[in-house]
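User: Predict the structure for this protein chain, please.
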Amino acid sequence: YHRSSRMKDSASPTNLPSGATAAMALQSSPSGQDLHPYARGAVIEVYHFDNKEAQDDWWSEPDSDIDESDLSHRTIRLCDIIDRRVQADGIWRYYVHYRALNRRMDEWISLDRIASPPSVGNAKARALKKEEERQKREQQRRQEEEKLLEAPRSRRRTSTVAGGDASAAGEAGADGRRTRLRRKTSVIVNDNDDATVAASNVEEGDSKERGQKMNHHQKKEVVALPTDAITHTVGEHVVATVQAQELDEHEGLDEASLREHEEVTKVKNVSFLELGRHQMETWYFSPLPKELLGPNGQIEVLYVCEFTFRLFARKSELRHFQSRLAVEKRHPPGNEIYRCGNLAMFEIDGLAEKIYAQNLCYIAKLFLDHKTLYFDVDPFLFYVLCEVDDRGFHPVGYYSKEKYSDVGYNLACILTFPAHQRKGYGRFLIAFSYELSKKEEKVGSPEKPMSDLGQQAYKPYWASTVLDFLLNQSDESSLSIMDISKRTSIMAEDIVFTLNQLGLLKIIQDVYFIAADRKLLERLAQKYPIKEPRVDPSKLHWTPFLTDVKRDKFSIHSKKPSVEAQENRGAGGF
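Assistant: Here is the predicted structure, written as structure tokens:
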């Protein structure tokens, strides 16, 4: 079996490093906090192997088992003790969380991994907290000083209401002027549909001419400069660059909800998942049925039939089940809607295949932190990507989506199993979700908030898709963000976010522009290439899921006309 995991800890006292020997000797220390068992919530220092950090990356996968006897990759990290238990031989083991690392790196350790006891760890933790508070106060002081220095400039930088219509631009003063709006309140005062985009270089010679061409649109596009916009002068115009925004994976969750979630799921209840010929180390807790778990609520290895997603606590049960499984059933249920080379995609209706869908959610929760869907799978469709060989169809990842989303989401959860990462399957699943949106003639977006892993997958995809469109699929000198959205099926707000991340979104005379010459676009395209495997639309055989909704506001036909279509109404525009 390919085992993408860390080697099990050895608790043999003969192989203990000097630090662990000292930690064991502290059992007779007069300090109560240094006596085993250590208290839950105590801070200790633990030997950590740097190669394990590779698992903190969305696409990464360990190439081989880690040799923990090699001390060259070993570092010491502060850890919080989450839980503890005593083994049959009377030796204590601790479940720890590494500070500054994601919770998927949490693990059980034995005494040989402990570098220093709680008396040392707690003291260092207090010192670090004091230093962080000092740095935070210093940062706040610098920010206040910068605001005082920029105050005169900000008073001068105001937006004039076009045409004197104060209602078109929100609240305005008696003199027809207003102060800048904050970025979180409004990036573009009116719809993104009307934001005009020019995919060309902004130079001194042509900036004035382009500004004159856009004057007849400015009445609809009164834009307030964000408070953190960076400005510089090109010719006679002030060009503002909008700083990139960062996504928050915990958006919408208050601190109480986060604490409750982390308390319930703080300890992993499955150490390894065996799926097909791969055995993978799990990352998070999953609310599996109690009959699958041991008396302490945990299980070392969870065995899964890769064809039916049935769950087993023993490998003998899995072998017996698969020996009776017919050859023609060695594939996911549902309809095969895509086949290209050795890749196949199946669409599974959660209502028709409830057990399969629920088990898939249980398995996905082992690798997704904030997934909450387990039982109510009826409103969802599941798309399972498989590698095909002479033995059958082997799942490598999946994504789910609502049959009808009120907010335009075309993807709810996405997962590539760790044993199949670094193969481009995550990007393939994302591209496939947008191909279905194109078939539906809709724009779509992933469910928000996105996890850190989801962001790492979506940001490069959005960047490469938008850059490819600007370079190779658009022969127009002037187009709107909604034009890009209609052609790519990416929601307009995601396109604006991507342009901010790439540093291409500019503001000239209160109008948003994409300002970049072809060389810059080509340089960015090399940084964000479209990678294999790609989705071949000609191999997709699929009909949109029918609903009883009379009008879908996310249909591209319900969007506002493009720039040219407004000028030439009736000439075939949307």
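Residues 118-156 form the longest helix (39 residues).
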